[in-house]
């Protein structure tokens, strides 16, 4: 089902086993590490936090009678600490992106991930109750999958390839995918074909401004996932 499988040597990159007869790979991709750094590890907020902390400590030093040199030294120490924290988060995002492969076949979605302990999560189309497309202005985006029936995914075992804050009903998610609209179009057509329906093209949705909140586009031929 969707339980992680221990990885064996991959017969096809990103897949734990050879494909069954009649099944074919339709699309493969990986998350962009910069998107993970910004939207998973929130490095912008980390940078803002250290900037505020640096300013506060420098102001406190000056108001306490310390000289400009001491204030500058204190601020520099906080800046270095913040830079180190952001660098570590970016490194972790890069490692996650480098070790992840998303695969859409004619019958399932496979998430192969794991920096230290690689695992593969097979998600058959039969248990995908709905899907959604969340595209940002850059074209990168997320494709969360809501599971139906008794099958449930474990949030922690899937993180960060899971929709945020859906702890009790975890939704596996293709995260930070470049050209997410193309991947969603392939998935939508495959789901439609599996269900015996006519494929519907998924229109790309992007915010008009980079700072605008991304819009969520329901995937065709399946019920739309709940709003964030």
From TrEMBL:
Keywords linked to the UniProt accession: Membrane, Transmembrane, Transmembrane helix
UniProt keyword NAD, yes or no: no
Family matches, as Pfam families: bPH_2
Compositional bias ranges of the Low complexity kind: 195-211
Membrane-spanning ranges: 36-56, 76-97
Region: Disordered, residue numbers: 195-228
Ranges where the YdbS-like PH domain occurs: 98-184
Keyword Nucleotidyltransferase: no
Name this protein carries in UniProt: PH domain-containing protein
Organism: Alkalicaulis satelles
